[in-house]
Design goal:
With about 375 residues, this protein is an alpha+beta fold. The chain contains 9 helices and 16 strands. It folds into 3 domains: about 40 residues; about 180 residues, C8orf32 fold; about 120 residues, Jelly Rolls (Sandwich), CATH 2.60.120. Strand 2 and strand 3 form a beta hairpin.
């Protein structure tokens, strides 16, 4: 208010001292009238500020109208089904993986935010899911990411994909936004879709897929003999549902007696980075470590929250409070005995149940 009415601050402080200021003088009444006008003008100017996400705003309204229209004639179907399907259709149609590939090939600036993806009409699976989750939140849908980390015959050949699950009628339902795919359970209602656990446990699940096969990027994959739905039955894969799960790291390099475990196309953090009921912590497991190793080096890039890093060697644990961990430094932990045949596991545990506590790292190194 100070910027729109110079006399407002002093007069408001006088008003706070008591009602005697408004003792019925015509001058004071003019001041009150002027102040009200200034207040209204100030609020109006604030309300008319342009949105920072106009494309996302319009997308939400467009999808809301579509879902509402579809739900009118299908009262037996969960409204969340129509909202999720309308959002998936919109995102796949507006944010093209092919356009993203073209921008990359032409060495042009790639979109990173949801608004930029909608503006450039380009994005890959991570962008698809980020946009879906943003729109879902505004629509009131309960949704979470489902991440697939495929393990190649060596770490350098790792790759990943990401889908979403939407919760309604007591169950999670998987949607693959990139391919426009969902999985109705045979013999059930049209909105009764499978989650990732059921899909992975039933060999017939590929036959359930309803996919937009006219999508040009889908056609590119099929022509290149790639499998868009490989997450249904890939044997060597780690899954994070709502960022909860275990990431297995293999040795990516050896230097003398040192083994280096570097996340390649994998998350580079341990712990929980979002305090939400549908999200959980990432645990890191080092596979086939040197049995003679006695020292764990963690190259720390950063950390957040309040908690402790716990390094397990078999049943024995080594707990390091976050207060003793410094960003940009290497945390060195000496084990009480050689690893032997025991595995090495890293967790980050928050001080408060359900809280945020995570450590971002570059590499993990085992030494003697």
């Amino acid at each position: 208010m100070a910027s729109s009415c110079d006399e407002s601050p002093n007069s408001l402080s006088d008003q706070a001292r008591g009602p005697t200021v408004f003792r019925g003088s015509r001058e004071n009444r003019r001041w009150v009238h002027t102040s009200v006008i200034c207040l209204v003008l100030s609020v109006s100017v604030q309300a008319e500020r342009p949105s920072k996400t106009p494309l996302t705003d319009r997308a939400v309204e467009h999808i809301r109208r579509q879902a509402k229209h579809m739900a009118r004639g299908s009262r037996s179907v969960a409204p969340e089904f129509f909202s999720a399907l309308a959002t998936a259709n919109f995102v796949q149609a507006r944010i093209s993986s092919l356009n993203y590939a073209i921008l990359s090939a032409e060495q042009k600036t790639l979109p990173t935010s949801v608004e930029q993806c909608l503006e450039k009409r380009a994005g890959i699976c991570g962008n698809h899911v980020a946009t879906f989750l943003e729109i879902s939140q505004r629509l009131g849908l309960r949704a979470r990411p489902v991440e697939f980390y495929f393990r190649g015959d060596k770490p350098q050949k790792n790759h990943s994909h990401i889908c979403v699950e939407v919760f309604y009628r007591g169950h999670w339902r998987l949607f693959d936004i990139t391919w426009g795919t969902y999985f109705p359970i045979p013999g059930s209602r049209r909105d009764d879709l499978a989650d990732v656990v059921r899909l992975r446990s039933d060999r017939r699940s590929r036959d359930w897929a309803i996919t937009n096969q006219s999508n040009l990027w889908y056609q590119q994959w099929i022509t290149s003999s790639l499998d868009p739905l490989e997450y249904l039955d890939a044997p060597q894969m780690d899954i994070l549902r709502g960022r909860r799960g275990t990431i297995r790291l293999r040795v990516s390099a050896r230097e003398g007696h040192r083994e280096i475990f570097r996340p390649l196309h994998q998350p580079n953090y341990v712990g929980r980075n979002q305090a939400h009921q549908d999200y959980g912590p990432v645990v890191v497991l080092l596979e086939s470590p040197d049995p003679k190793a006695t020292v764990v080096h963690l190259d720390v890039l950063g950390l957040a929250g309040k908690g402790s890093l716990v390094i397990f060697c078999g049943e024995k644990r080594h707990t390091i409070p976050f207060a003793d961990i410094k960003s940009g430094q290497t945390l060195r932990t000496r084990l009480t005995q050689p690893i032997g045949k025991q595995g090495v596991r890293l967790e980050a545990r928050p001080d408060e149940p359900g809280g945020v506590a995570y450590v971002v790292y570059r590499v993990i190194t085992l030494g003697i």
